Amino acid sequence: MISSDVDLDKTRTLLLYLSLAKHKIDQREIAKQKLAAQISALKKISTKSVKKHVADLEKDIAEAIQKERNIISTQKTEDEQHQELVSKIDMLEAKLGKYLETKEARKKRILELEAKIKKKMASRKEKLAGLKDSIKSLEKLYSSAKKDKKVSRKRLKSIEAKIKNLKKKLKKKAEEL
Question: Residue ranges of the domains in the chain?
Answer without folding.
Answer: 8-176
